[in-house]
Specification:
CATH class of the largest domain in chain A: Mainly Beta
CATH superfamily of the largest domain in chain A: YVTN repeat-like/Quinoprotein amine dehydrogenase
CATH architecture of the largest domain in chain A: 7 Propeller
Shape of chain A: elongated
Order of helices and strands of chain A: HEEEEEEEEEEEEEEEEEEEEH
Number of strands of chain B: 1
Number of strands of chain A: 20
Helix content of chain B: over 70%
Number of helices of chain B: 10
Mean pLDDT of chain B: 88
Strand content of chain A: 25-35%
Distance between the termini of chain A: 29 Å
Number of domains of chain A: 2
Strand order of the largest sheet of chain A: 1-20-19-18
Structural class of chain A: alpha+beta
Order of helices and strands of chain B: HHHHHHEHHHH
Largest sheet of chain B: none
Radius of gyration of chain B: 18 Å
Shape of chain B: globular
Oligomer: heterodimer
Mean pLDDT of chain A: 86
Number of helices of chain A: 2
Structural class of chain B: mainly alpha
């Protein structure tokens, strides 16, 4: 191998190893975002949560129920329908996607009516959600996998278009969308079969990845206001996220900041002095 | 010897950046860039004060351009908010203005390098070489780069989706900001650093050395996407940019490709939860 090629490969490896070893320093999590609940090793295709009662369906078609928040599960006879996802009641509002892919809206006990500016989501569209903490905000998924959001002014816009997973794999399917139907938080959670869970905290305008620790394939979500928790049915069991603030950078103030600035000066001088000394030695040797 | 000087200076900057983080602030959000900048400034002042360190001046000027201008870029939005309070423009406008300041700081150091360094060691930044061929190569490379970006696994880069609402709101400011930042970084790494290294070593070695510094310098950047492949990917990208600059003999090829790549990443990478990537 040519010496320069060898050196290039060596430099690439050294840089990569150094970088990979050092970068995780930045990524230490304060608390876990998702924790496993049960059924690890089993693919779970659907979940419905209400208080300590969890009903799940496994990928092989079994329906299981837990009445102790997932500690134990028992089989359920028959194949009961878990909560439908094409209709959501949030506060005083009801939102539904009809069989033609149109969004319907009802206030109180009023009749469902076509939302005036609602998009045509396609005849197989069936995912809709409306967080109770942000009245008027609705997120719905079209049958072409496009995520639409309705602002509080009634204006609908395309909010998220997933990109292909790679050269030979298309965009992952959006499998579920959920939010709290009591005004705990305005967050909207979206699960995918490939990109785990995405979250929006501003009514669907901006999305971030929110699946650290979760398997990439998430088949269903269920938000339970009683437990302040979101449950995820995944390719590797049932997981839970207990409502918490989004992690944010620590802020340093007052004395801590003063000491940090003193530290900055000392560290900078020490590092610069050491490097200067080493460079002078090197120049002298040559 | 230049390679040794560069390695020592990089180690010094790395120690200033990382050692305190490892012991005091695992999230790395203390004013670490101030340490980096202060160290790079002290080093370059020492190099100009001590005649024996004259051979180190070109690479130290390049490193101070990298560290100080990035610090300016990172700190400017907060400074603008502090200065203008409620009259401050929106965040994306702040980022655009910060990117302008980064360009100004970088070009100031280019002028300093041209004025202060003798002709024999003065870096050739290849800024004045513009032509049809470099531009055509840049356009072709952009297409290839975008295809490669789509072909790579999405999880590697975090390029999960397009957000039309966010793009319409932010990209009119962020795309020009990306172009300005790309220009600054190309001047710093492929212009000042590689140009300086090429004076004392072969083009190939100079490219390897600048790519290594380019990869490692990304340790200091808060990237919204997955962290693990960040440095290896940026080493390869830096090497390719250096190779393209050397082959086309123009910095503008890399500037254009870099600007398109950064804009594409800005538009497609979905950030992770802070500290929980």
């Amino acid at each position: 191998m040519h010496p320069r090629a060898t050196a290039t490969v060596a430099a690439a490896l050294l840089t990569s190893v150094l970088g990979s070893a050092l970068l995780p320093v930045y990524a230490l999590a304060a608390t876990s975002w998702w924790t496993p609940v049960a059924l690890r090793g089993t693919a779970v295709s659907a979940v419905s949560a209400s208080g300590k009662t969890l009903i799940v369906r496994t990928a092989d078609g079994r329906t299981l129920r837990s009445t102790d928040a997932g500690t134990t599960f028992n089989g359920v006879a028959g194949n009961p329908v878990l909560s439908p996802q094409n209709i959501v009641r949030s506060g005083d509002d009801t939102w539904e996607i009809d069989s033609n892919g149109h969004v319907l809206h009802a206030k109180g006990k009023g009749r469902l009516q076509l939302d005036p500016q609602g998009p045509d989501l396609g005849s197989t569209a069936h995912l809709v959600v409306a967080p109770a903490a942000s009245l008027g905000v609705v997120v719905a998924v079209a049958d072409d996998n496009t995520v639409w959001r309705r602002g509080q002014d009634g204006d609908w816009k395309r909010a998220l278009i997933l990109l292909p997973q790679g050269l030979l794999r298309g965009a992952p399917a959006i499998t579920s969308v959920t939010a709290f139907t009591q005004p705990l938080t305005g967050s909207i959670y979206l699960s995918t079969d490939g990109y785990a869970v995405l979250i929006s905290t501003d009514g669907g305008d901006d999305w971030i990845r929110a699946g650290p620790g979760l398997p990439d394939s998430v088949y269903d979500l269920s938000a339970d206001a009683d437990q302040h928790a979101v449950y995820a049915a995944t390719s590797d069991g049932l997981w839970m996220h207990v409502l918490q603030r989004l992690p944010s950078p620590p802020a340093y103030t007052d004395a801590a900041l003063v000491w940090r600035w003193i530290g900055i000066v000392l560290v900078s001088l020490a590092a610069a002095a050491a490097a200067t000394f080493a460079m002078m030695r090197l120049v002298a040797l040559r | 010897m230049t390679a040794g000087l560069l390695a020592i200076a990089t180690l010094g900057l790395g120690a200033a950046l990382l050692v305190p983080i490892a012991f005091s602030d695992p999230n790395g959000v203390d004013p670490y860039l101030a340490r980096l900048s202060a160290t790079s400034v002290v080093l370059v002042v020492a190099a100009f004060a001590l005649r024996r360190l004259a051979p180190a001046r070109p690479v130290l000027l390049a490193l101070v351009a990298v560290a100080a201008s990035y610090t300016l870029l990172s700190a400017s939005p907060a400074i603008i908010r502090h200065l203008f309070g409620t009259r401050a423009p929106g965040f994306t406008t702040q980022v655009f203005l910060a990117s302008l300041l980064e360009v100004l700081a970088t070009m100031l150091i280019v002028v300093l390098a041209v004025r202060a360094l003798p002709g024999g060691v003065r870096p050739d930044t290849r800024l004045q070489r513009v032509g049809i061929r470099p531009l055509a190569i840049a356009v072709a490379a952009c297409v290839l780069l975008l295809l490669a970006g789509l072909a790579l696994p999405a999880q590697l880069l975090g390029r999960f989706g397009l957000q039309p609402v966010q793009i319409a709101r932010d990209l009119p400011w962020l795309a020009p900001a990306c172009a300005l930042q790309a220009f600054s970084q190309e001047v710093q790494f492929r212009g000042l650093l590689m140009g300086a290294l090429e004076r004392t070593m072969s083009a190939g070695w100079a490219n390897v050395a600048q790519a290594a510094v380019f990869g490692l310098s990304h340790l200091a950047i808060a990237y919204g996407g997955p962290l693990a492949p960040f440095v290896p990917v940026t080493f390869v990208v830096g090497f390719v940019f250096g190779w393209v600059v050397q082959r086309t003999n123009s910095l503008w090829t890399a500037v254009i490709i870099h600007a398109v790549a950064d804009t594409a990443l800005t538009a497609t990478v979905l950030s992770g939860l802070y500290g929980l990537n």
